[in-house]
Amino acid sequence: PGGDRCRGYYDVMGQWDPPFNCNAGIYQYCCGTCGYRFCCQFKPRRLDQSGCSNYDTPNWVNTGQPPARVDETPEDPTRDKTNMIVYIICGVVAIMVLVGIFTKLGLEKAQGPQTE
User: Fold this and answer.
1) DSSP string of 89-112?
2) Residues 85 and 51 in one domain
3) Is 12 inside any structural domain?
4) Which end of the chain is more exposed for a tag (fewer CB within 10 A), N or C?
């Protein structure tokens, strides 16, 4: 003879806990509460699962769709263009600085060592 079978149920957090068998050694009985079940060794502590009512999805879990997100400020397309212009200007300046540095290095190398 095997042990009890704890029926699947919805726990206190609304999560489904699947059914399981109590057949591991001396832990033969389904014990605990309707919202938290486990296997135990003492028959007097056995849970009367027929008295539990948490076998269907709780109503409070079905909250429906979340409300649509409302932005605090409306979308401003000119702001996006301003950011892009700043990025372009910074990129052009950086490229000009690099060109200047490499030009200076190239000219110094082409002139060779200076004699005084």
Assistant:
1) HHHHHHHHHHHHHHHHHHHHHHH-
2) no
3) yes
4) C
